[in-house]
User: Fold these one by one.
Assistant:
Number 1:
Amino acid sequence: MDASAYRLFAQEKLGVNFKDIELLITAFTHRSYLNEHKKTVSYHNERLEFLGDAVLELVVTEYLYNTYDEPEGILTNWRSSLVRTESIGAAATRCGFEPLLRLSRGEKRGSERARAQILANSFEAVVGALYLDQGYEAAKNFLSETILSTLKDILASGSWMDAKSHLQELAQSQETATPVYKVMNEDGPDHEKTFKVGVYVGNKLRGEGSGPSKQAAQQKAAEAALAYYKA
């Protein structure tokens, strides 16, 4: 993909004309791509990701502080929900990042989980590139449209809360019972296990989830149970 595609992306999705288009191209360049194109590519996006992460956190923190008169703990949870991997990865998907990613052949065949992380990282890198090329206000405007605009739905759904904590509140208020998590299955070698966990409320199975650790599987099970209560 040539530079014109990235210029068009900058104009249509970022609302700017990039001065240094190579900076934006680097934001989409995964380390693995560099390993396969050492003669033609010199940089990958990890330094830009480092910078963009800081800009993202500052923009979100500034917005929450100026907009809401809430205790620190509440604001911290709201911020976490806005900047977590799932949120920024989803924003990258909505903005059409995936076709612009420069990945190795192996990474292109990677798992869905790995691709989600790459998208989230590239989102932060793009924010970093936008900040360097266009300044803080341009980065802030982009994040206002792609990240801050999702807060209303996050607050309405209660997804800013930790899934297990949210489930405990719902289960106790609706069924006067505390959720209990049980491992239903373990699969795979010790270094790459997948756990399947069920969450029971009043001895009734309310959700199941799988993950690379018991804690991750419990979170997925809690999310599934939350969907049951909201159905």
Number 2:
Amino acid sequence: MARPRKHTDQELLDAAREVFLAHGPAASTTLVADAVGLSQAALFKRFGTKEQLMVRALMPPPRIGWVEALEAGPGPGPLPDQLVEIAVEATRFFDRMMPCLMTLKAAGLNLAQMVRSLPTPPPILARRAATAWFLRAMDQGRMRRADADALAYTFIGSVQSRSAMSHIFGEPALTESQRLAHARGVVDGLWNGLRPPPSETT
């Protein structure tokens, strides 16, 4: 009878992520194994090679909360409030992912090729979800007609670029209140051109 695993794969991946982000891609897998009280042999049995472990630990997860929120919406509440909530969550996501992607790049891995190998690359999935969200809002008469695809790029790019400025170009990281203020600024700028005329349903 097989012995139950002491740690789940996700727990090991979380530990590996912390090690690679703290020590860089050259970090020994011994540090990962020690962090969870596992032997290196057992670690490699679960994940194959160090590169495979690093990729699974640092690549975006298959399910992304803010993208799923776009796919499920818009809901019945005010559209700007919904967009602000999604933008805040998206900024948190990009703040987590930027260091991961930079670490993978520093390891010499081809990020573009890795992303394209996924069934639906996360950036494409996010853009499609945002485009569909805006189209549904337009079809419901809750916002003006506009180029939904362009809106999707504008919305996602505005939150993604703020994280890039922090993690790539060294600008101070946003506090939670600054993250909310940035999200509101992005949504306010978009909504000024998208709000329906007073005679239309809001």
Number 3:
Amino acid sequence: MKFEIEKMQSVEVTHLLAEMGVRYWEDGVVNGEPDDEDNPQIPLRSGGVWRLRIDLATGKIDDWPDGVTASVHYKVCDDGFYSLLDQDGRVVAEKSDYVPAMLCPAGRGWGYYVIMDIGADGVICDWNPDLSFFSDTD
């Protein structure tokens, strides 16, 4: 008789991929100007989805345009898909759920909001990655 068990292992991860359905683009400020729901200027938006690939060690967003600043308070709720990637870009863990706390370093998001400030260098201010989101089974 066979019985399958899940073996825990330690894996090095380098990036967080966050794909989030934003409800109200006007809840963002880009280069000091309020964003526009009809023509959002926030970088890395595709339709209604904001897709960020974040270096876990530094908080730098890959492909963020130089010189662009942003401050966002986006309502996402449970319309997000989050993945941890290894150095080769392979998905190590993934979760579709409410917003992880690490994506709201500028305030309490309560799982509903992405709240962050992004500097002109593409680094998320006060970045503090907490990977417990991926091990939480609730």
Number 4:
Amino acid sequence: MIAQHQRRGTWTRPGLRLIALTQFARTLFTQAGFDAGRIDVKPNFMADPGAPDPAMPRAGLLYVGRLSPEKGVGVLLDAVAGTDVPLRIVGEGPERAALEARAPGHVSFLGARSRAEVLREMANAQALVVPSLWYEGFPMVVVEAFAQGTPVIASEIGGLAEVVSAGKTGALAPPGDAAALRNRIAELLAVRDRAAAWGQAARAVYLARYAPDENLRLLEAIYARAAAG
């Protein structure tokens, strides 16, 4: 389909702008033959749920997403095996039964939850873990976690490595490496108030990059470039 539109000149029409969610995605489009000068980067955003209560106690880790092989939940279970770190897993998918069968006792499977419930879970967690084995576009769970002042431990792959700043808003581990992921979790929890400090930084990044006003400014700038041809 891309080649067909390239022959038709669809991607070179005056005023055409393309939007990528991350610089990583922009690079992939450019490598595929798209004109880099026509591609703007504008991330996802969400309405501000309000600042989290700093006095609210937080405990354990949280995973939110589909329970399927490419999401790396099995790697996360291996990472917390032999520890006593509580892990709550929100979501459904074809791997749920197999994952539950091998999960240690300190892992809870909560099934599908409403968005409001997910946000509350994030506000109660010390960190969100995104152990994906394959590229993500721009997972909204990261924005939601940042908005709730929750740091993110993610796979160092694709756009995740761009959105999560290691040592500032969270930590990164090679995808599929349970030992490295276990180390990142241990490093987060080993230092008192580290999760809180990273969470405050994550909240600041949300307000600066992923809140509605900033996203509208970015979109208006893209429209202005499109109108200028």
